[in-house]
Amino acid sequence: MNPVTKQCEKCNKSFDILADDIPFYEKMDLPMPTMCPECRFKYLLAFWVNGKFRITKSALSGKTIITVLSESVLFPIYDRSEFVSDAWEPLSYGKDYDASYPFIDQLVELQSKVPHPHQVGAKNTNCDWADDVWESKDQYLTRSVGWSESNIYGYRLVRCKNSVDLTFCFDLERSFDCLYCFKSYNLKYSFNSRDCMDSLFLYDCRNCQNCFMCWNLRNQKYCILNQQYSKEEYENKLKEYNLKSRKVVDELKREFWQHIGQDAVHRQDYNSKTANSSGNFLENDKNCYRSYFLQESENCRHIFRGFGNKETIDSVGAFQCEKCVLGAMDQFGAYGNICNLYTTSCRYSVYLDNCEECEYCFGCVGMRKKKYCILNKQYSKEGYESLVEKIKADMNSRGEWGKFWPLSSAYCGYNLSLANMMFPMTKEEAIKFGTKWDESIEQHYESIVSANDLPDSIEQVQDDITKQRILCPETKLSYNITKDELAFYKEHGIPLPRRHFDWRTLDRFKPFSHMITLQKGNCCFCKKDIEHYYSPELGFEKIACLECYQSKIA
Fold first, then answer.
1. pTM of full prediction above 0.90
2. Per-residue pLDDT in tens (0 to 9) along the chain, 554 residues
3. Domain ranges across the chain
4. CA distance linking residue 508 with residue 515, whole number of Å
5. Nearest Cα to 24, choosing from 334, 311, 347, 278?
6. Residue 124 gets which letter from DSSP?
7. HSE on the CB side for 290, CA within 13 Å?
8. CA-to-CA distance for 157 and 145, rounded, in angstroms?
9. How close are the terminal C-alpha atoms of the chain, in Å?
10. Residues paired with 279 in a beta bridge
11. How far apart are CA 262 and CA 22, in angstroms?
């Protein structure tokens, strides 16, 4: 089978549908993609909400709820516990299929009427100001969290505890301002480090303790700028840095990234324990192609963030999916699905939105434990199969079949989606791409202080700062310092943040957006041709092939 070359309908660049991609579409009787892989990721990620937290009321009970769903959504928002209760009936919104106009239009009309839950997640305690949180406790303004406790301003955390400003970290405790770090304790201002403790400004370090401003170290103690010191020398040297000063910390961050760019050695990808796979940030994967942030998966292609998948293609947020195509947050036991959005434990179903534990459903919204339903209307097995064939034939004749939900049906604008974190666009670019853009509505406060006027040192901060709103000069958004947050900063000697927490997360995340496009270069040691994932914007000077990296660094 030969590759098929096409022109992307979004960016107009030519792209290949590879021979190994084609069977995935043929098995599901789907047409070949009309967008290049990168635009497919942008499109699907635009449905993954990363919006601002806001207070509103449940449309069912009037209960106060906190949600990241945009004010622009048309559908009613119910408290999550009400959404899964018997207080309402999804089948009451059922409608007959009308062959006179496109099925997708009928589906979007249904979506606009059926209630949606205010929050994603389950089995949490004191996690009202959080979203996509699972089996966790005391999370504040965090997103995508599992099995964690007492974290503030986190994104993509697993088994983390008593930490602030972590992004994509697993098994960290009492840590601050870290990106892609694992199994560490009291780690600060660090990136891509593991099994470390009581350290600051580490890059690609393993099993290090009491180290400061270091890179590529293994099994070291008491190092500063990769230079060895005695315990006493290290402690005295560290005192020379006034780490309680915002000005000092900002200058150290700039110096740290200069060392990462000029001195650190970077392995050609961040993959671990993979076989016959390509992409970046892969772990324990086999036969996975051009995928990113994917773990424990096999025979998958074009997946962005997932776990435990098999034979799945073109999906984002895919968790425990098998034989699925075109999904956004289709997860936990999904099997044989096509074009599903925010579904859980559904099988053999197509064009679902926010459905749970359904089988053989087509074009449904908000359904739970249902079978043989179309547009939220119940059918017999025979009636379902007959009408599905009719709808598919009509969709094929109109060129609809196999196209994902329209961007107009996303729960938020592009700027408040995960797509904007990984593939940033201006408002003009996003609208040209075909998606929405949500204008920020900032609440007015009578008393507000500029972040530029905050004390430079945490030692100068008074407890009454928790009673004030703070204006971020860059974003013009306001934020506050909670009592728990202030206690953390004082305990750890961390100066107050001067930017809105969402923009701190976006800045911390930025390196990832430059590590998902295949590049070509030469190993800095052996000079052989290599493929890697560091875009020129990062300015990394020393990129090594896996063999050289392992021999000289690991």
1. yes
2. 688 899 999 999 999 999 999 999 999 999 999 999 999 999 999 999 998 999 999 999 999 999 999 898 999 999 999 999 999 999 999 999 999 999 999 999 999 999 999 999 999 999 999 999 999 999 999 999 999 999 999 999 999 999 999 999 999 999 999 999 999 999 999 999 999 999 999 999 999 999 999 999 999 999 999 999 999 999 999 999 999 999 999 999 999 999 999 999 999 999 999 999 999 999 999 999 999 999 999 999 999 999 999 999 999 999 999 999 999 999 888 999 999 999 999 999 999 999 999 999 999 999 999 999 999 999 999 999 999 999 999 999 999 999 999 999 999 999 999 999 999 999 999 999 999 999 876 666 777 999 999 999 999 999 999 999 999 998 888 999 999 999 999 999 999 999 999 999 999 999 999 999 999 999 999 999 999 999 999 999 999 999 999 999 97
3. 4-45, 122-267, 448-513, 519-552
4. 13
5. 311
6. -
7. 18
8. 5
9. 40
10. 291
11. 42
CA distance 64 to 79: 8
Identity (one letter) of the amino acid at 196?
A: C
Residue 31 contacts by C-beta under 8 Å, 6 or more apart in sequence? 25, 401, 402
Residue 421 · residue 506 · CB < 8 Å: yes
Sign for the CA dihedral angle at 404, 408, 413, 415 comes to positive
Q: Are 325 and 24 in contact (CB under 8 A)?
A: yes
Q: Answer whether 140's CB lies under 8 Å from 391's CB.
A: no
CA–CA separation, 197 and 187 (whole Å): 6
Query: What angle is formed at CA 401 by the lines to CA 312 and CA 50, rounded to 5 degrees?
Result: 60
Number of residues that make up the chain = 554
User: What does R_g of the chain's alpha carbons equal in angstroms?
Assistant: 25
Which residue has tokens 């934020």?
479
Per the CB < 8 A criterion, the answer to whether 37 and 77 are in contact is no
Q: Report d(CA 283, CA 194) in Å as an integer.
A: 15
Residue type present at position 508:
R
Contacts of 221 (CB under 8 A, 6+ apart): 208, 209, 210, 211, 231
Taking CA 131 as the corner, what is the angle to CA 134 and CA 349, rounded to the nearest 5 degrees?
75
d(CA 307, CA 289): 14
Q: How distant is the alpha carbon of residue 73 from its chain centre?
A: 21
Structure tokens at 538: 């990062």
